[in-house]
Amino acid sequence: MSPTKPLPAALQRWAEQRIGPVVSVRDASHDWDRSRVWDLEGERGVHHYLKVSPSVKFFTRESRAYRHIVPALGHTRAPHLVDSRAQDLALLLTAVPGAPAKELGLGAVEWRTVHQQAGALCARLHEAGPLDRGDRVEAEASLPAAADGAETYLARAGNRLNQDEQQLVRDHAARLRRVGPVPVGYIHGDNQLLH
Fold first, then answer.
1. SS3 47
2. CA Rg, the chain, in Å?
3. CA atoms of 13 and 25, how far apart (whole Å)
4. To pair with 65 at 20 to 30 A between CA atoms, which of 44, 130, 137, 187?
5. How far is CA 12 from CA 40, 49, 83, 84, 125, in A?
6. Cα–Cα distance between 172 and 147 in angstroms, integer?
7. C-alpha distance from residue 27 to each of 35, 100, 146, 186 (Å)
8. Is 116 helix (H, G, I), strand (E, B) or coil?
9. Contact call for residues 41 and 95 (beta carbons, < 8 A)
10. d(Cα 108, Cα 106) in Å, to the nearest integer?
11. Strand ranges (DSSP E) for 32-144?
12. Which is nearest to 94 in space by CA: 78, 118, 72?
């Protein structure tokens, strides 16, 4: 577990200018060192999230997504952007009702439903409209980048993969370099349970 990350006072003041007084702040960061997310509870029990992106690249990608793509997912299916603060890479977001799936004690059938819903939302994201030039360049670069990253992921996997499995990964990475033009969509998170 990562140590608790305090919310910088300047960011809390900025958030309060947009959503009103905050009565409690909870560190809601994921368990990795670059995650910085806080759950802000207002006077009427309304929750918002303040997220500081780990880089300009991620801030730009997420800001664009919240402004232009998320509305296509539907009102209660994704957080909505209240405001952003580029100089701090900060995003102020609405909360979405519900609980993380991993906390619900779901069985196999329910997990299948969760994965089907996640796939349907991903499909809606890909159908949200044409990509602008920057999005297209990033999307077109994703296949070669995935191929380039194969060795890094193999090194992280260590001895959890045998030589045949490692070769399978290398073969698929090599195929990515030869796949040719493919339809591209918006780059999004890796669709893990925490996302």
1. strand
2. 19
3. 12
4. 44
5. 9, 11, 13, 13, 31
6. 8
7. 10, 16, 32, 29
8. helix
9. no
10. 7
11. 37-42, 47-52, 81-85, 90-94
12. 78
- CA-to-CA separations, 137 to 8, 118, 186, in angstroms, rounded: 35, 25, 10
Q: What is the pTM for the complete model shown?
A: 0.71
Q: What is the pLDDT of residues 87-127, one digit of tens each?
A: 999 999 999 887 777 888 899 999 999 888 888 877 777 77
Helix (H, G, I), strand (E, B) or coil at 67: helix
Distance separating alpha carbons of residues 82 and 169, to the nearest angstrom: 41
Tokens of 178: 């030869």
- Which DSSP letter does residue 157 get? H
**Residue in the block written with tokens 């073969």:** 171
131 and 186 Cβ atoms separated by less than 8 Å: yes
